[in-house]
## 1
Amino acid sequence: MSEHIVTAFDQELNALKQKIAEMGGLAEKMVSDAMLALSRRDAELAQSVRQMDARLDALQREIEEAAVLTIARRQPMAVDLRDIVATIRIASDLERVGDLAKNIGKRVMAMEGQTLLPKAVIGLMHLSKLVLMQLKVVLDSYTARSVENAVDVWQRDTEVDALYTSIFRELLTYMMEDPRNITFSTHLLFTAKNLERIGDHATNIAETVHYLVTGASLPLDRPKGPGSITALSDVSAG
Amino acid sequence: MSEHIVTAFDQELNALKQKIAEMGGLAEKMVSDAMLALSRRDAELAQSVRQMDARLDALQREIEEAAVLTIARRQPMAVDLRDIVATIRIASDLERVGDLAKNIGKRVMAMEGQTLLPKAVIGLMHLSKLVLMQLKVVLDSYTARSVENAVDVWQRDTEVDALYTSIFRELLTYMMEDPRNITFSTHLLFTAKNLERIGDHATNIAETVHYLVTGASLPLDRPKGPGSITALSDVSAG
């Protein structure tokens, strides 16, 4: 392989990595703005999140097309090939993070004018901070190619699940106390679920970084907390 | 390119398509069994769905690895390359369908021993039939490379969303009528959401089939019904 072709591959890979960085920044902003919109009951900010999603979807398509073209033109092998595959996987996870943030924004708009218990939102803000940190750390781990930081994120998913479960239980108690709490609590339940799923995507990206750097997969069984599903059966038994 | 290499590519592509067919059949069975488990309150069947998910995850990894090796070895172009990319995308969507079916199974197990209103499950069974049909038709459209059938599935997503919305509203009314309905209704709300998301993945696969056969994407804006999110605001306003 002549040096000229290697340089072209490096240019194309770097262009892909830049698009991943742009997607990552945008996805983080969408999650952050959606939650800010929730805490402020700001429907206009929520609407702006929905509009950012179009850019994110476009980036994902651009990355996939460019990655496929690079594979066809440059015929990368081994680590170079894993690098390209990694951009496809990460773009897919980030596109889904954007969808989840957009859905949180939609719920904020749907809750416009409704009363809700401010205390019910506190746990959600805490969960969103944790999930945003996971996203930031895992995207940094990709840029730095740091397996250690990626594995940290993967393991910390247990904490995300535990916090999600406690928020879920809390919202259930509000619903049972007073039927007037049911509507907004249902919105918040789904918002919590969306945040937990954003956390799952951060963990997926961690698995991709691990595969990229080591060539091996993390164990099939991601560390999981008890989860909300058993929480429901506990609460109903009590 | 010698005939020998083309034949090897065809063999590898066919092997990938067979794995997609196996994944598709398994994903359909998982959804079907999970819903059967729900209608029968059969925790053992629900547990078996969870075990099938390991096989599905393994297939997805096998497909991704084999697809990447094929690209590296055979250096396919144009339609051949789209064929390989399509298997990666479809495997990713089917793996998520399996996760969603597994989650439905988990909820069935969590609901063991709980009372629920049988009428509340009827709408869900209807939604699951619709979604299973979408999966079947779109997987057939992939095998047959039929853009027409893929577009049908893509358009019918509006129907899936409309049915999901009506089930959501119905479950909200049960929750408001009687606090004793809240726990199981919450399980069913999330089950309905999981089914709606399975429908979304069928639509993703339809988009992939369209791209595979025509080389072009479907419009960014998938047809969407009003959706459950506005349903909640309507119900609370009333």
## 2
Amino acid sequence: MITICVDAMGGDESPELVCEGIAAALDADPELCVLVAGNAEYVEPFCAAHSRAKALVTTEVIEMGDHPAEAVRSKRDSSIVRGCAAVRVGEADGFFSAGSTGAIFAAAATNVGKIRGIKRPAIASTLPGMSGRETLLLDLGANADCRPEMIVQFAQMGAAYARTFMGVAEPRVALLSNGTEETKGSEQVLAFHAALAEAVPEFVGNCEGVDILAGTYDVIVCDGFTGNVALKSLEGTAKFLVSRIKAAANASLKTKIGAGLMVGALRSIAGELSGDVKGGAVLLGLKAPVFIGHGSTSVDAIKNGTLAVAAAVRGDLTGRIAETLAK
Amino acid sequence: MITICVDAMGGDESPELVCEGIAAALDADPELCVLVAGNAEYVEPFCAAHSRAKALVTTEVIEMGDHPAEAVRSKRDSSIVRGCAAVRVGEADGFFSAGSTGAIFAAAATNVGKIRGIKRPAIASTLPGMSGRETLLLDLGANADCRPEMIVQFAQMGAAYARTFMGVAEPRVALLSNGTEETKGSEQVLAFHAALAEAVPEFVGNCEGVDILAGTYDVIVCDGFTGNVALKSLEGTAKFLVSRIKAAANASLKTKIGAGLMVGALRSIAGELSGDVKGGAVLLGLKAPVFIGHGSTSVDAIKNGTLAVAAAVRGDLTGRIAETLAK
């Protein structure tokens, strides 16, 4: 039996929806216990009705609009801060929340703690690829400014994740740049390239923005500023195309019928980039697995996110990263 | 009468296709002359058959795979180098090529020359927006490392372009960052923000990658590294979604019929992000308009690109930028 703490108050939807997701995860995994963090009115009745659910009653909620670091300091009795603290003291083996990425990162970095030797944890996400293979992209915004040794650790953590969770025995790690030649990049990125070439055997060279969804590399590393811009450019493009397709579908009777026949397929494509399948992002470099769900969440997203944390605990993600760093 | 030099050898398609595009531009604009740069076998017969076309016979071709700066130095008799030189000596009022962006930038920076006071020219492109309004994004890769004073000039040039060509009397200029708050960004981007806030009245604050195709801002500025990553992430996402839609369309008879009814609409959406409509990118900060077409070109792309350079000459883009800088 393992115990995952899930934040009932996280995400744009209701705590009831999060609880539905937790129930689905408990149904799917008989070896799973969930510590449900949140306001008493939601978590107590839910835990009373589910034998493998235990309540962690909290009184404060960190909202999406709160300043992350400030909220973590001032809302000590929030589901995010208490959830991370429960992991630290061993009441839970991992944490899942669909709340504010910045707040979860801040709370987890302080309360869960870093793996020995890790300079800074990173936010990573697996993205679908045209080739059918997925790519792990990191850092997605935790560290706007990075030193070369941080990028080296991102590459090492990413490679360990790819081996453990993506089923890739020999991961290919690339550096996001403005051209594939090794001479391409800002001064900073040229320094990243040199450090990766020296320290990371899995490093295969530079890649470009167009490679992120191509499924050519298993891991793509960059500083958090660049990763955030790339990820949000990708999200913006998906939104743009979906809005254009909707407008086109409504343009005539012919296109309305066409869209009606394709609607299921189009929805599943839009869903691929929405984070529902994988349950969002993962924090790498912490002493226990902490996963972050997409804000605009669903029952499936909560279920899959919770099960992904459980898989990370069972697969000993933390131990594998520590091993890689020790080499 | 104005004269635009067009590179017959540029682009992934044949010189014959480029010549068809030139013919279409000449048909559309009776006050236009074209100086057609390229190998004799293509440009001479074309110019013999078109009264307002004049041949600029060259013997070398800069290929897409050539190292830009090296190719510009070594292939002195290429259509790109000679075309830019023709602009410098006044044989043409502007230049259009669908060739290598890096080579055109290098040739134009040296041969066309910069507007007095400009530190570095920038590569800019107008992108479609969800709101129906377009956004000019720069720099797209000419300057991987930027100082704050360069970003200020990009903002000023972008604002001048928006006033002259996008019909926006009071352009809104934003800085691409990893969050909208002014405290967000790398150290470098925080310095960009401070410089813009002080020197550029059109500056309205930070924006994120998701805003690039939202049509919320008229101009978005960033260093060339970030702009290149953002633009290529956008292109990659469009490719990914188109490939997924194609696969989904072929999945069943129902979706095949649906896609058949929607095919025209889907093609036009894909075309919006392909560069065909606007004819690609524009170099800002040079003494004469130089536009770059999308590599995977078409007759319409060449026609529209050529006419766009003619419009930039007639609208005195160069003069307007010089005026803005002088303020």
## 3
Amino acid sequence: MNQNNYCVIMAGGVGSRFWPYSRNHRPKQFLDFFGTGRSLLQQTVDRFRPIVPIENILIVTNIMYRDVILEQVPDLRPEQILCEPARRNTAPCIGYAVAHISARTDKANIVVAASDHLILQEDEFHRVITTGLEFVEKNDVLLTLGMKPTRPETGYGYIQKDNGKGIMDNVPDGICKVKTFTEKPNLELAKVFVESGEFLWNSGIFLWNLQAIRRAFRAFQPVIADAFKAGEHMMGSPEEIDYIQRVFPTLPSISVDYGIMEKAQNVFVMEASFGWSDLGTWGSLYSLGDKDENGNVSLKSDALFYNSKGNIVTLEPGKLAVINGLEDCIVAEADGVLLICKQQDEQFIRQMVADVEIKYGGKFN
Amino acid sequence: MNQNNYCVIMAGGVGSRFWPYSRNHRPKQFLDFFGTGRSLLQQTVDRFRPIVPIENILIVTNIMYRDVILEQVPDLRPEQILCEPARRNTAPCIGYAVAHISARTDKANIVVAASDHLILQEDEFHRVITTGLEFVEKNDVLLTLGMKPTRPETGYGYIQKDNGKGIMDNVPDGICKVKTFTEKPNLELAKVFVESGEFLWNSGIFLWNLQAIRRAFRAFQPVIADAFKAGEHMMGSPEEIDYIQRVFPTLPSISVDYGIMEKAQNVFVMEASFGWSDLGTWGSLYSLGDKDENGNVSLKSDALFYNSKGNIVTLEPGKLAVINGLEDCIVAEADGVLLICKQQDEQFIRQMVADVEIKYGGKFN
């Protein structure tokens, strides 16, 4: 294992999309969605263990999730959990982690990933990440992983490949320059993207070496770069928390995609295919779940279906659902709340959660 | 209060119609359906307290429910709970209670009622029962209560009134002879019944004096009469249980309606109206529940409905249901089972319960 490999796992999300299964105090990354016994965060950490020394794994999160992370991943030391005092999107988050690594070393190959995505083919994931880290170790590039699309998904951004390899030699197969990043397309456009063969799903997994990402921050996000440069000597010291508390909230809220990747010229994409999903919606969970002959999915508990089709059910393990005459619904129960919602109205869940917050003052949020 | 008034409450039902809310170990009569803090059995006992001395209340049930009854009605003495060793419908059940009363007295006015019905207007109920008990105290009649129908219900049997008062004088207003008992009608016939003004719902509430019902048993159910006559001297003694264990299962399984009321000539009906329901179906619960502007009912827990109508929801108190895009369904959750079922398929619940029994071996039954 390359001792210069580092991993930054972003675990600050508070998503309400899986309410009532996810809650403010227990967002998606800390849940065991598929009843495997490991939360998405635990699976993410486990996935990097063969590639990155455990002491080189950093998790960036909100202070309120610090304890649950230490509980779920007990072999992390507390100083490996970086706590954001405010939500400022991914660029300041990554800037903070980069400053932390800079305080320890000047030579690091870094992979950045979300804590709440699903990856089914771990061996292929390991091969891709290892190849990518070796590539970025030797080159001043910003590498992103692009997932070979399997359907015209409208929930993802897309990356358009450039046919050339740029001016570099020895670029491994599967890696090429990026022509453009795109926003989430409508269905028609997504179909064109997939058929063209030129577009990949933007996975939000980034790889680069320490000096390349520092240069990119200095060039495109100087405010963030300067803030962390000024605080770099405090990283890992008792002054770190105070400094971050004071400075972090003043930083611009901007994504690394928009703030750096779309602006830089040395951006490459590595085409990959390892059963990835961002688990962004009930629909994505439904598409991944084992279906009975009528297309019903039960994620964690037993279920009997009668005259029903296309439903996704998640109750607590050990419970039983008996369902008659229901179609295309989400049925989710957790901690005193039962949600029944047509899958097509999934985007409406946020509004329902807001209504519940207003009516019950956080009791069920 | 007339110290000769007795009450027999039948509480042996095991109904699966309200599964998963009702269970084998916790049938309907022991449940607090409306979140009032009192089970249907407790409400039934409470309803008779102003009319019948507490020591004259007998409850006939299955041995497995003895403890829950003593727990729910702690001022009953254990010998007031009569335990049937087998289910033999209502005639042997009532015969057993009559034998018990005969062992204590030769003068009693008895009202027989189910333990799991709902009565909304208690004052009117008290007036009707008191009037009825006074009538049967003085007359050799078998009196049944007929409920003035409010809709063409197909779930009830009907009683057709006779215009005359028979040969008796001094029959109170509202009491008349019975022409016929009918089975549950289809909807068309039920409409005719209701429009005619001659038909009443058969409530299963009976009133008679001790000698009248003993005579009726001797005349129409001699096997049952003889069995309890032979055991009458053991009632209330240590031999009672052994005797009942031995003899009760040998008795014919027959209802008091079919076995006595339809055969006897001295049958009267008292027309009454006190907000009665047998709570026989989810549909009957639905029709009784408070509805929001879209006809949704939540019995015990909070619920928010969106684009939904005509649903009945019962979760445990303190829980919250959030429901979007659901119509005319039953949503019931209890003890690890969630049932979602179209109301029109309610009769199908028995089959589902049987399937669950086969698949999970009683774990959820």
